[in-house]
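Escalated from tier 1: pyridoxal-5'-phosphate holo job.
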Amino acid sequence: MPRSLFLPHIEAMSGYVPGEQPRGGTLIKLNTNENPYPPSPRALTALVAAAGEGLKRYPDPLGTVLRTAVARKHGVDPSMVLAGNGSDDLLTIVTRAFVGPGDVAVYPEPSYILYQTLLEIQNARAAVASFRDDWTLDADAFATVARGARLVFLANPNSPSGTTLSPAQVAAIAARLDCPLVVDEAYADFAETDCVALVREYPHVIITRSFSKGYGLAGLRLGYLIARAEVVEGLTKVKDSYNCDALALAAGAAALDDQPYLATTRARILATRRRLADALPALGPAVPASAANFVWWPLGAAAEPTYRTLKDRGILVRLMRYPGRPDGLRITVGTDDEIDQLLAELRQIMT
Ligand SMILES: *Cc1c(COP(=O)(O)O)cnc(C)c1O
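Tier 2 regenerated the structure:
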C-alpha cells in the first residue's frame, strides 16, 4: 500500500467544512444563510413540468432558458451569461481557468472560506489583504497585494460581515488590477447596489450570483455569472458539459421571471434584519450595517459559549473564528417568529 494515493497538496489539505446541515429535528436553523421563505410557486410549477419525459435527454449544455432569463433581468446579452451548479461551481470553474500550480490569487480577509480551499486544490497560493476595522478596503494597498496575482475574489456583500463596498469602491479596485476580478454577489439580492454594470467598463470583471439565498433555492444548486462574452466563451471550455440539470435550469428561469415574488420575500427579510440589528446592541456589541440576509455579531470570548447554549436550546447559528480578530456569531435572518425566539433566548443568556 503506497503511503498516500493522493497528490501531496491534496493530501495536505484539510478541505472546506460547510455549515452544519442537521437532518430532521426541529432546530431553528440560522447558520447557513438560507432563505426562511419557500421559493416562488412559479419555480415549483416549472420544475414539475420539466420532470417528465424530458429527463431522458441530456440538458441544454448552455442552459439557454436560464441565460435568456438572466439577460432579461440584468439587461445584458445572453452571450455574457454562464450558468453553474450553484455559484460555488462557477467559482471552481473560474479558479480552474485562471489559476495554476504555484500561482497566487488574492482575496480580502475575513471573507468566504471556500476561496482558500479552491486555491489549495489548484496547489496555488493565497495572498490576503485585510479589511479595515470598518470593513472597507484600501484600494491601493489591495492592488499592491494583488500585483502579479492571477485572480482576485471579492465577496460583495461580504461574509461574515454582511457589509458592502459601493460600486465606485469596487471600480477603484478593478481599475488597479490587471487580472480577473470575481465579484461574488451571492447576497446582492438583499443589497441596495450591485456591480453588474462594471462588466461593461472593465473586461476583467466577473460577477457571480446565486439562487441559494435570495430565491430560496439552496437545495436546487443553481447560480450564474455575468462577464464579457469572450470570458464566458473561455470558461465554457472548463466547465462540465452538463453542469446544470434540466430541473434546475427550468425552475431557476421561472424564479428569475417572478421578480415580484423576490421583492416580497426580500422586503420581509430586510424588515426582520432591521429588528434583529436594532435589538442586538442591548445584549452585546453592535453589528456592522448588513446588506445581506445575516448579521455579524463580534462577541469575542462570549461567542463560543453563546453558540453552544443556543444550540442546546435548539437554535443553530454559525460560530466563526478568524486569526487576529474577535470570534463572532454569524446569524441568518430567519422569519420574524424565529428571530423573536432567538432574541428571547439571548435575553436569558446574556443578562
Ligand atoms: C452561499 C455563498 C456562495 C455559494 O452559493 P451557492 O450558489 O449555494 O453555491 C458563494 N459565495 C458566498 C459568499 C456565499 O455565502
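The pocket of pyridoxal-5'-phosphate is lined by residues 33, 86-88, 112, 155, 159, 184, 186, 210, 212, 218, 223 (CB under 6 Å).
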